[in-house]
Design goal:
Elements (H helix, E strand, L loop, with lengths): L4 H11 L3 H10 L4 H18 L7 E8 L5 E9 L2 H5 L1 H17 L4 H6 L8 H12 L4 E9 L2 E6 L5 E8 L7 H14 L11 H17 L7 H16 L5 E2 L2 E5 H8 L4 E9 L2
Antiparallel strand pairs: 1-2, 2-3, 4-5, 5-8, 6-7
Helix pairs in contact: 1-2, 2-3, 3-7, 5-7, 9-10
C-alpha cells in the first residue's frame, strides 16, 4: 500500500523517531502502525546491543529532595556525546528517570529501570526507544537515595555532578546553608567515606603498604616502617574522609568542627556524590 506523508508524520508524532526511519518502518510493515512501532523498537534494541560496550562519558545528573526535606534522590543518565546530552528528548527522558525514582521509591537501579510508565512499558523500554531514535548508547549509570532529618542537594553548574547530604540532630536549626557548603565540599574534595570507619579494609591495607614502601625508599629503618605508615594513614584519613577534611572555606575548621559550631550535636549521617565523566 502507498505510504503517505501524513502516515509518516503521524508515526513520527507517536514515536519521536526520524522521518526516514518512520517511512522505512511503515513500508516494511505494509502500513500497519502497530507493526511499524515494533520495527522501530527492534531498531532501538539492535542499537542498544551493538553499542553495549561503548563508553558513556556525557549526560546529566539530576537531584530532588522531597517536600518535607527528609528524602533525596540523585540519578545520572549518560550518553556517548555532548551534543546528545543537550537534545530535548534526552533531557526529558532524564527528568522522567528522576520522577520515576521519586514516585516509585525504587530500591535499586534494576527496580527503577523495570518501573512501568504511563503506557505500561518499562522505563528501560523508553531508554531503548530513544537509543533507536538517537543512535547512541543511553544508560542510567547511577541511582542513589538518602534519608535523614534534613537532606540537602547540590548540583554543579556543568550539570554532570550532583551531591546529597543527610543531616541529623538539627535541633530546629536552619541547616540549609551549612548543608550546601558541605555538599560543595564533597563535590570539590571527593571524600571516599564519612570517617575512617567507612574506609574499606582493602584501601587501608593498600595505603599502609604504600606508606611502608615510601619510608623504605627513603632509607628508614625496618623497625620504624609500621609506625611511619600509620602516620601516613592518618594523613590519608584527614585528606579523604569528609568529617576529617579541612573546610575549604575556613581551613581553621574541619567538617566535624564546622558541624559542632553550627549546632551542638549536628551530624552528617550519609552523603552521595554522583558524577558523569
Amino acid at each position: 500500500m502507498a505510504i503517505t506523508a501524513q502516515d509518516v508524520n503521524r508515526l513520527r508524532q507517536e514515536t519521536g523517531a526520524g522521518m526516514m526511519d518512520c517511512k522505512k518502518a511503515l513500508t516494511e510493515a505494509n502500513g500497519d502502525f502497530e507493526a511499524a512501532k515494533d520495527i522501530l523498537r527492534k531498531q532501538g534494541q539492535k542499537i542498544a546491543s551493538k553499542r553495549a560496550d561503548n563508553a558513556t562519558s556525557e549526560g546529566i545528573v539530576l537531584t530532588q529532595v522531597s517536600e518535607d526535606g527528609k528524602t533525596g534522590k540523585v540519578v545520572a543518565v549518560a550518553c556517548e556525546t555532548e551534543p546528545v546530552s543537550k537534545v530535548a528528548d534526552f533531557q526529558t527522558l532524564a527528568q522522567t528517570v528522576l520522577e520515576t525514582a521519586v514516585s516509585t521509591n525504587a530500591a535499586s537501579k534494576e527496580e527503577l529501570l523495570a518501573a512501568p510508565q504511563a503506557d505500561g512499558r518499562s522505563l528501560q523500554d523508553h531508554l531503548t526507544d530513544l537509543m533507536g531514535k538517537i543512535g547512541e548508547k543511553i544508560d542510567v549509570v547511577a541511582y542513589e537515595s538518602v534519608s535523614a532529618e534534613k537532606v540537602v542537594a547540590y548540583n554543579h553548574s556543568n550539570g554532570k555532578l550532583g551531591v546529597l547530604v543527610a543531616l541529623d540532630n538539627t535541633s530546629g536549626t536552619d541547616v540549609i546553608e551549612v548543608g550546601k557548603d558541605i555538599a560543595m565540599q564533597i563535590a570539590a574534595m571527593k571524600p571516599i567515606a564519612l570517617d575512617k570507619d567507612g574506609v574499606d579494609a582493602a584501601t587501608i591495607e593498600r595505603e599502609i603498604e604504600i606508606g611502608k614502601e615510601q619510608a623504605r625508599a627513603e632509607g628508614k629503618p625496618e623497625a620504624m616502617l609500621e609506625k611511619i605508615a600509620q602516620g601516613k594513614l592518618n594523613k590519608f584519613y584527614k585528606e579523604n574522609t569528609l568529617l576529617n577534611q579541612e573546610f575549604v572555606k575556613d581551613s581553621s575548621l574541619n567538617i566535624s568542627q564546622l558541624l559542632e559550631k553550627t549546632s551542638k550535636g549536628l551530624k552528617v549521617t550519609d552523603f552521595k556524590r554522583v558524577a558523569i565523566g
